């Protein structure tokens, strides 16, 4: 609700929190941070409205191991050459319960940290070796640039506070996982039960 009025305060512009799904409630503080990020980095999209921010277009994304949501994402724009998303993080993005399982992405992307921070480890395959760049922290206001050649894991977040704006380039074939010991590449496949877990987390999408 925008612009509520009552007898004690002439005008209130505070939006009431909106619960999208279990575990995902959006409030005015999150909206303010997200809207400021869009205005700074993507003014061509126009102002982010409260209605867009609190729409039912959010997806909670399951952790393959626990089935819990490790992030929620909202796509703000999508074309053949560019995708823009807001990500709200609840837990690290580790795809194996026992050890590192770094992945890459089918696109180059920029990750703008809109609130708090996250920690990332990166692996780069160079001349037959795998070079690890561990525990790089990205903080509010910074831009993390990631190419398709980078394999990474988000190893630490500020649960419920870390928020990022992701601008992705055109999607290309061939993303997957790299063995951190020998650099062996394994193409990505749909994890078992992923769609079932995703459906369970997103009753608002059914
Ligand atoms: Fe990633």
Biggest sheet strand order reads 3-4-5-11-6-9
> Rg from C-alpha positions?
18 Å
Average pLDDT across residues? 92
Largest sheet: 6 strands, antiparallel
Helix content: 10-25%
CATH superfamily of the domain at 58-191: Jelly Rolls
Q: Assign the CATH class of the domain at 58-191.
A: Mainly Beta
Head-to-tail CA distance between termini? 25 Å
Number of strands: 13
Share of residues in strands? 35-45%
Number of helices: 3
Shape: globular
| Low-confidence runs of at least 5 consecutive residues | 1-7
In short:
By secondary structure, the protein is mostly beta strands.
What labels would you give this structure?
206 residues, 3 helices, six-stranded antiparallel beta sheet, disordered N terminus, 13% helix, Jelly Rolls, 38% strand, binds fe (ii) ion
Write up what this structure looks like:
- With 206 residues, this protein is mainly beta.
- It has a domain at 58-191: Sandwich (Jelly Rolls).
- Helix content is 13%, strand content 38%.
- The protein has three helices and 13 strands.
- It has helices spanning 28-41, 50-53, 194-201, and strands at 18-21, 24-26, 59-62, 69-78, 83-89, 109-115, 117-126, 129-139, 143-146, 151-157, 163-168, 176-178, 185-187.
- It has a six-stranded antiparallel sheet with strand order 3-4-5-11-6-9. Strands 8-7-10 form a three-stranded antiparallel sheet, with no helix packed on it.
- Strand 1 and strand 2 form a beta hairpin.
- The radius of gyration is 18 Å and the shape is globular.
- Fe (ii) ion binds at residues 93, 103, 105, 152.
